[in-house]
Amino acid sequence: MTINGSDHNLDSEHLVRSEDPQHPANLICTLCRKFYTLGWRFSRRFEQVTGTGGGTSIRHGPHIYIAPSGVQKELMEPTDMFVMDFESKEYLRKPKSHKPSACTPLFMSSFTLRDAHCCIHTHSQWAVLITLLVERDFGPSAPFEIERIEQIKGIPKNYARDANGKVAYLGYFERLRIPIIENTAHEEDLTDSLQQAMNDYPDTYAVLVRRHGVYVWGDNVHKAKTQCESLDYIFQLAVEMHKLGLPWMPKD
Amino acid sequence: MTINGSDHNLDSEHLVRSEDPQHPANLICTLCRKFYTLGWRFSRRFEQVTGTGGGTSIRHGPHIYIAPSGVQKELMEPTDMFVMDFESKEYLRKPKSHKPSACTPLFMSSFTLRDAHCCIHTHSQWAVLITLLVERDFGPSAPFEIERIEQIKGIPKNYARDANGKVAYLGYFERLRIPIIENTAHEEDLTDSLQQAMNDYPDTYAVLVRRHGVYVWGDNVHKAKTQCESLDYIFQLAVEMHKLGLPWMPKD
Amino acid sequence: MTINGSDHNLDSEHLVRSEDPQHPANLICTLCRKFYTLGWRFSRRFEQVTGTGGGTSIRHGPHIYIAPSGVQKELMEPTDMFVMDFESKEYLRKPKSHKPSACTPLFMSSFTLRDAHCCIHTHSQWAVLITLLVERDFGPSAPFEIERIEQIKGIPKNYARDANGKVAYLGYFERLRIPIIENTAHEEDLTDSLQQAMNDYPDTYAVLVRRHGVYVWGDNVHKAKTQCESLDYIFQLAVEMHKLGLPWMPKD
Amino acid sequence: MTINGSDHNLDSEHLVRSEDPQHPANLICTLCRKFYTLGWRFSRRFEQVTGTGGGTSIRHGPHIYIAPSGVQKELMEPTDMFVMDFESKEYLRKPKSHKPSACTPLFMSSFTLRDAHCCIHTHSQWAVLITLLVERDFGPSAPFEIERIEQIKGIPKNYARDANGKVAYLGYFERLRIPIIENTAHEEDLTDSLQQAMNDYPDTYAVLVRRHGVYVWGDNVHKAKTQCESLDYIFQLAVEMHKLGLPWMPKD
To answer: What are the subcellular locations of this protein (chains A, B, C, D) (predicted)?
Structure first.
């Protein structure tokens, strides 16, 4: 069962070989293992990176590091990484035995349109259920909206920065709105509608995909990870609220 | 508490002794421990291999490796493995202190009728609930069917191979159909109806057993594992959809 | 935060000091850690041994080993064990800093009335919910009953042994029946009704306690553990079936 | 991704450097890692300390140790701790790269008004759902109340001590009552209503915050942790009871 290819042009080796645990090629592996393990641990969220689903990408200086498609997340190695030049969009490194991730143009959209440095894609069942509940209760073009849940304070309000370059986060009395786009036969075909949603919702740090999952990005790996966790907490809570007949937006 | 027997004819020792982690005798143990641990971790799926339930088998060259019955999955050792000759169906190795798995003829069916090389059997509660919901809502002979869930793309479409010998996977707009057979008093008595279901559904890589669980196979261990994960994701999602009144097959 | 006392009469030291991982004093600690960890891992079942709830006891030759009350399960040490003489019911060892478990007379009942060698008590939420559903739907004196779930085959049918001293397990078409007793203010006051239930249900290997949890015993640690796992699987499945309007006993 | 600052006035180093695992600076880290890991493991409760939510504080002699805000719980180091003088309320130690926790005045309230030595704050989804169910079914000023669940015996009855200085715990037939306060835009603004609730409910060891979570304290770390676990068990069970139409307070 050889699933991690290592047949690749050796002169690109230096791009993924580093002792630094913070090097993106190492970080993606740590993150994928963590997600896989966490995934299996936190109740319904194992599916985030179940088997070979989901994915993640990190932008590091002039380079984009992308986890390959179809590799068991917990077995990912730095040498499995694809590396792309951010400017030319050309692959500086292509492990021969792997397929590039179909999410690549979507990850890239968060880097180019949002200046993000990390983008995470999951198949969270909570996200999928939210897209179905919103469609049925509010219509196909409605976004997911929720108010007055403490955890929304974990999501940035917009891209504005204060004097110290700090981002502002949503307030408890503000509204979290995540756009939902329709799924397509091929993941790369989501790119146009994802970019459209980014334009229609200039403040959003995430886009839900109907019957599919969610894309979440952040200024760095730490923020992308914690925003992904906070959103999944909110999606899960919202589904439980729906089961109990509790509205997402308090009347009063 | 001696539960792992090691009293066996020593001349079969070489069949299960290997330094290679990819050797099937080692792989089954890794898989069982992983499933057990994952099982305990991912919410409702611990039951997949709870206690001594479920099982797995690997076909390796001329040999079939089978985990014994009634052994705690997390404590399984290579020396606990049964080894059978694929052609003669004779045991090359029988740990005296263990019972052969009652699943053996079912595992074998996937190897002979489908040319699979790994077969996994679980008692997933999601699988059991699906078989009950389908029976009540669609009748005793209906299969489980679902459409337009991204994760079905993780399941092969059929056994056809392309020029490069690659298998095609279900498309997002295609329908996943898993046959359901009735349970029997003794597991081995499932063999005929399992084989019948394989004939009636020539494309399926899995068969659900009412009130019991599911059998999933694949071309290799990696594929069997990820297909098992993807199916369980879909079963779990489908149960949650049912709780929320969301149909498995969108009207439009 | 000293929670594991070690002030105890040293001449009883030999009772709990052993290099053998199978020695009961070590086994209970392993079991408690495993349960605690598993507990935290398997969805709703963490509460089985949450904090200081639940407990376990092993009968070993002339001695009974009992985990103390009020000790964090994951931090339990062999020196925390109480040891009682099976005949005289006198403590051979009492760690001064600990309270003996209030479950002691209940554990003892399974040893004396059932010749069990291990008894596990949990506060499984699934068990608690089952006792409430049975009371409401079938009345205060009804037992929990379920049929035709493959996993019931993991529960012994009665105490009869075959020629080889093997116990028979429930068949798929047979009925699992677990008596339910009312809870009392003090755990030790459950003893009479527990023993009454054991007499009224001479075949049962477990007794549910309303609004409290379950007691499960077995011929040895391995069997008590796997029977506890199988029952909790069944309790959890039965609660999910109830949520989905699926009857525990098929009509036909 | 440097998220754990270590730039701090070195002369405060001795406050957080200790080989003793029981030293509060080490205990908080152990606790946070444990909660994070457990969090990810136990089904819905990962959110307790998801990402950077929740927090904990320990009072140790004349000092208060407080985990910083916005640090990934699993990566917390002793050098990340804030240390405050209990009398003067002045910081003896402020890691420059961190923000003090907004929970500080709330933790402090449990130390000053209740003489607690450890306070834990979580965003448990079960706690959030309970606050919403109570508001809808019993009104905005109603507390959460439940009776006759064995696990309530894990919660102290009041602050009275017996001759040996032991605290009394709730009896099975007594009622657990946890006050609920309304959430505010800024966490520190909860202080007045939290203290009001402590006065209105002089026996309580916890306060729920609507749409936010819960604060739980104890005489020491061990008690705060197990009381937090017991309460979350009860919140989770109460939500499941509500789904199944089972009342929190038995009629008879």
So the answer is: Cytoplasm
Contact D1 A172 (CB under 8 A): no
Q: What local confidence, expressed as pLDDT, does residue A81 receive?
A: 84
Residues in chain C with CB shorter than 8 Å from the CB of B183 are 148, 150, 172
Read off the pLDDT of residues B122-133 as tens digits, 9 standing for 90 and up. 888 999 999 999
Whether B169 contacts B153, CB under 8 Å:
yes
pLDDT at C70 over 80: no
* pLDDT exceeds 70 at position D12: yes
* Proportion of chain D in helix, strand, coil states, percent, rounded to 5: 40, 20, 40
Dihedral sign for Cα B236, B239, B241, B246, please. Answer: positive
| Residues B129-139, mean pLDDT to the nearest whole number | 98
Which amino acid would we find at residue A166?
K
CB contact under 8 A, C237 and B125: yes
Where is D198: in which H helix or E strand? Answer: helix D191-200
CB B57 within 8 A of CB B103: yes
B57 closest CA partner among B5, B101, B8, B98:
B101
Helix (H) or strand (E) holding D106: helix D104-114
Taken as a whole, chain B contains a residue count of 252
- Residue B196 CA to residue B177 CA, distance in Å, equals 15
Q: CB–CB of B233 and A123 under 8 A?
A: yes
pLDDT band at D44 (very low <50, low <70, confident <90, very high): very low
Provide the pLDDT for residue B31: 65
Nearest residue in chain C measured CA to CA from B45: C42
For residue A61, give the amino acid letter. Answer: G
Q: At what angle do helices C221-243 and C125-138 cross, to 10 degrees?
A: 50
**Distance of residue C18 Cα from the nearest chain B Cα, in angstroms:** 16
Contact in structure between D146 and D175 (CB atoms under 8 Å):
yes
Beta bridge partners of residue B55, listed in sequence order: B121
Cα(C55)–Cα(C187) distance, rounded to whole angstroms?
A: 12
**Nearest residue to A219 via CA among A117, A106, A107, A109:** A117
Contacts of C16 (CB under 8 A, 6+ apart): C25, C65, C78, C79, C81, C83, C93
| CB-count exposure of residue B202 (10 Å: 0-12, 13-18, 19+) | exposed
Locate D122 and state its tokens: 């979580």
Q: Could you give the CA distance from residue D1 to residue A228 in angstroms, rounded to a whole number? A: 17
| A143-154 pLDDT per residue, tens | 999 999 999 999
Helix, strand or coil, per DSSP, at residue B66: strand
User: Given 3-state DSSP classes, what are the helix, strand and coil percentages for chain C, each rounded to the nearest 5?
Assistant: 40, 20, 40
Q: What is the pLDDT of residue A36?
A: 55
Distance (Å) of CA C123 to CA C45, C182, D154, D237: 8, 14, 12, 11
| CB-CB neighbors (< 8 A) of C241 in chain B | 129, 132
Q: What is the pLDDT of residue C35?
A: 60
How far from the centroid of its chain's Cα atoms is residue D8's Cα? 27
Those chains having 3 or more beta-carbon pairs within 8 angstroms of chain A are: B, D
Distance CA(D93)–CA(D82), nearest Å, equals 5
Task: Report how many helices (DSSP H) and strands (DSSP E) chain B contains, helices first.
Answer: 5, 12
Task: Report residue D217 CA to chain centroid gap.
Answer: 5
Cα Rg, chain C, nearest whole Å: 18
The ipTM (two decimal places) reads: 0.87
The average confidence (pLDDT) of chain A is: 84
Residue with tokens 């009454």: C196
Cβ-Cβ contacts under 8 Å, B44 against chain C:
43, 236, 240
Phi/psi class of residue D61: alpha, beta or left (left: φ > 0; alpha: ψ in -120 to 50)?
Answer: left
Interface test with C, best of B2, B44, B135 (most C CBs within 10 A): B44
